[in-house]
Each structure stands twice: as C-alpha cells, then as structure tokens.
Amino acid sequence: MSNLKLSEVRKSFGSLEVIKGVDLDIESGEFVVFVGPSGCGKSTLLRMIAGLEDITVGELHIGDVQMNDVDPSKRGIAMVFQSYALYPHMTVRQNMGFALKFGGMGKADVAKQVQDAADILGLDELLDRKPATLSGGQRQRVAIGRAIVRHPDVFLFDEPLSNLDAELRVHMRVELARLHKQLATTIIYVTHDQVEAMTLADKIVVLRDGIVEQFGKPLELYDDPDNKFVAGFIGSPKMNFLNAVILKVSATSCNLKLIDFNEVSFDLPVNGDGLAVGAQVSIGIRPEHFTQNADVEFSLTVDLLEHLGGQSFIYARSDGNETLVLETQDGRNIKNGDRINVGFDKKLALLFDANDMRVR
Amino acid sequence: MMKKLSLKLNFADFFTYVFLTFMAFLSIFPFIWMVIGATNNTTDIAKGKASFGDQFLINVAKFFEQVDVPLIFWNSSKITIISCFFTLGIASMAGYGFEVFRSKPRERLYTIVLLTLMIPFAALMIPLFISIAKVGLINTHAAIILPGLASAFIIFYFRQSTKAFPGELRDAAKVDGLKEWQIFIYIYLPVMKSTYAAAFIIVFMASWNNYLWPLIVLQSNELKTITLVISSLASAYYPDYGVVMVGTIMATLPTLAIFFIMQRQFVQGMLGAVK
Ligand SMILES: Nc1ncnc2c1ncn2[C@@H]1O[C@H](COP(=O)(O)OP(=O)(O)O)[C@@H](O)[C@H]1O
Ligand SMILES: [Mg+2]
Question: Could you tell me which of A180, A186, A95 has the C-alpha nearest to residue A138?
Fold first, then answer.
C-alpha cells in the first residue's frame, strides 16, 4: 500500500506532446479511475507510472521514493493488460508464479503464493491449463491473479474489461470492487467507459488531450463539474446543453435568455462578474432534472421514446429545433408527436461560459 | 445437414480436384521415378523401364562401395546443422529487432536488406568467391557456411512473424522483471517456436541441397557434401543410374524425415505463430 504522486508530468513522442502537465495526488488504498475519450493519453499515463514509457518531464513518486528511473519490476506495481498478456507457452500456475520465480523466490513459497491467489479468485481448477484453453473471463481472472501474487503497492489496470461481453463485464466489475475491499491496495484503473468509472472509483480523473479536466469523487464530478467537457462526459444519457445569451450580470446573479426555447428568460444565482452582457453561454441540465411545474418552463414536441420499464427516455425537440433528452419515471402514456410542457429548477441548472468553463 | 453439404460436390469443386490431383502427380512423379530407378540396373533405366525391378540391394551395395557414405553424411550434416543454428539465431534476432525497436534509420537499413533479395546468386558468385579467396577460406566448410548466415529472406520471415507477437507480452515481461535479452530467450523464443520450426525446415533444405556454391569452393574429396558426390556419380563417363538413384534417395531421406516430424509446426509457422 502506498500513495502515489505525479508532479507536472509530461510525455512527448518525438515532437508530439501526449501528456501535457499532469499533477495528481493519489492516496494510499484509493481506487482511482482514469477516464476519457479514446486517444486522450490514459494508457500512456498509466504506462509512465508502470515504467513502460519514460517520463519526459516531471516526477513520479510512489510511497516516498522518486521512481522516474526505477525498473518497472522494482516500483512495487503490478499491471493487468487489456489483452491480458498471459504467456501462451506457460500454464496458469507458471504464468502466475513466473515473476516470483524469476525474482528468486523459493519453489515452496511460489507455490503457496500462487495457491493463495488462486483461492481468492477461484482459479483452483484452471491451474494446470494453458491460456489458449481458457475463456475470456477466465483469462481475465488469471491476469488479475498474476498481479495479486506479487503483493504490489499499486495495481494498474488498462481497460481490463473491454474484451468481455456485457454480462461478464458487469460481473467482473462487481468482483473487482470486492477485490479492492479485500486487498485494500491502491488501484489505478483506465477505462473509456464512464459507467465503469462511476461504479468502481473512489476518485475519478477525467482526461482530455493529455490534460486533467477534473479530479474528484464520482458524484462530485456528476453534480458539480468544473467544465462542459466533464459535464458532458460523465452521465448517461448525456447532459443537455441549452444555448443562452446573457442579458444582465451582477456579483450574485446572472439574467439570461434561452435562445431556442421560446425565448424564456430567468435569473441564475451565480457570480456573473466575469461575464459580458450579450455573451453566448450554455445551460447544462441532466435528463432526470426536467420536471413539470418548475422555475423555468417551455414546451417541446416528442420525437422518440425509449421505455426501459423503470424509467423512460424522451427525445424531444424545441420550437427552435434543439433536441433534448429527458428522463422520467412516468412516461408510459406519452406518445410520439405529443406536445409536453417541461422545465427545470434553477438550482439544478449549471452555467458554462463561452470557453466551456463552469460559472458558479 | 452437414453431411449433405460436404458430400455435394459441385462442378467447380470437381475441376478443382482434377486440377489438384494432376498437379500433385506432376510434383510426385520425379520422386516415383527415383524410387523405381533405384530398383533397376542402368540399362533398364536408360531404356525407360517404368516398373519396379530387383536390383535395389545390388545398387545399394555398389553405392556403399563407390562412396564413403559416413563421410559425406558427416560433411553435409555438419554444414547444415551449423548453418541452421546460426542462421536462425541471427535472423530471428534481426527480425525481432527490426520489428520491435523501430526507427527511421533502421527502416532504411531493412529496405537495403530486402533489396539484396533481388540480386541473383549468379551475380554474387564471383565477388563472393574473390572475397572468400582473399580471407583464405577456399576449400573449407566455412566458405559454404559463412555467406548464408545472414539470410535476408529468413530475416524478412521473422520480422513478418514478429508482427503477430503482442507488444503487451513484452510489457508484461518487463513488469515481471525481465531484461530485453531475457524477454527474447524466455518469452519470444518459446512463443514463436512454430516460426522457428518453419524457418528451420527452409534453411535445412536450402543448406542440405546446396550444390552450386559448394561445387565452386570445395576441391578436396574429403570435404565434399552429399549433393556434390551424387552429381559426380551422375556425370561419370559411364554413369550407373541405379546407383545414382540410390544416392538420391539417401540424400532425400533426412529432408523427408525432418519434414514429417515437423510438419504440423511447419504449417502452423506458415500460418502465423501466435494464435
Ligand atoms: N509509442 C507511441 N508513439 C507515438 N505516439 C503514441 C505512442 N503511444 C501512444 N501514442 C499516441 O498518444 C496518444 C494517446 O494514446 P493512448 O495513451 O494510448 O490513449 P488512450 O489509452 O487514452 O486511448 C494517441 O494519440 C496515440 O496515437
Ligand atoms: Mg488505451
């Protein structure tokens, strides 16, 4: 168990900068998820922590040790790869014991460690099989087992569930959460799936283009995002963004008008000092935050309905032709083409300025 | 359902089979001719007799009489085994290196390596002979082994096969504490063993059957390889074709044996080593 600290970390491949100055302080025992769109640098950052990529600029500390130039095997980390990367010529037992044996541990000790890990993961029956004869889920488990036997200070996972089918993915997600409780080790986990991030993480790091957009607890990111990117990335269906224009500002409020929604105007209780009158802004509303009899109301035409049983998603259009997604618990009687009156409470609306930054 | 499908031969399939049978016959015919020839005496062979005769044991006895069989097998084996060992070693390291540690200059070097494939051996023969003569290796086995060691084709083959060797396997090995050379020995080598098997068969056959170059650089009889000796039997003033055929069969046996033993690995290696 160890805390982990990245200070002003950068990475360039040739002239292409991929990680553009990342600062992170991860506490011992935390389950931290790196999430972001494909190509944003999640894997690169993880591989820098593992020692598989050099750190161009900046420092990495694990525990109190500066790890920039330490060999991957001596950083106290273990990694689970997206493709599992099991050695195909070795049995499960050999795969799991390989690092220990290679590190000079005695035969009996290796066997005991492997047995312990196999017990935790239910791998007992598979120990003498080769990876090629295992299913995806079993390989996944072996890959985790191979990491566990090393008793690392920090586990690194790179999209470990992305090769599994949906059902198995949910199952393994629960198992990973259980495993984290059991081992209480620091985990850094990379995924592009925000549901995985929300369900597993103690803290989420949202990355975009090599920059940390926000670092915080899942619900903090959901309720109180720092910018439009985080607001749009976390949550499914996505947050709705309604274009608006500023009419009047003060230090405690901001008066604005929705452009494509019947020109409704209203006040938001935010500090409007940085905003100019006439500036284009956007209002973020989560699908479940639309209600009837709310502070701000407008009417919409229903385009499409998705009934999931417990809830329904309504895809609706304003008179200005903006589409919105609404979530409701009692949408069973609504039909395509219906006119509906909806709105939102001002305290649930988030304001983003022209640069997509949050105005609080 | 399945049975019906597999039994139903359509027109196109029929011609495919006829064509394949014909081609198979074409390629196996010289082999049959060789076996039949080994059982007949030289006059019958010259007459074109196409049935088995009763001269086999006599031909074998004559062959052992005229030729120092253990010596030529020893010479050929020694050259072939050393060639295989070093060619596979060098080419696999080179192919792995080119594929895994990529850089612009290396790609350029690789292109040059590939370009050498386009130069026919006939054009290289004289400069090669002069080089070998300059270093004083004419009439040694080293003269045969050395020029083949860095085989552009085998390097190419290993590089292509290495494309299927997953990068994450290397990463996993690094996290497990292996150095680059250990990754090569403990992970790459066993994982790629069918690629090695296929390359081994290719190099083995090329080296075992090598004729032209040994003919040029070897002069002493006690250094000659099996192909040279058989050819000298065939080009004698009164060649005994029955004996020549026995020699040919003996020369073919090791290749056949190796192919049969390693057939599965060979096919797998050709299809790609990593599943
Ligand atoms: N070895 C490399 N050489 C050059 N560019 C790379 C290399 N590895 C990754 N990149 C680039 O860095 C960016 C981030 O990649 P990656 O970290 O794999 O993204 P993610 O895991 O978030 O999908 C991508 O644009 C990718 O093309
Ligand atoms: Mg990735």
Answer: A95
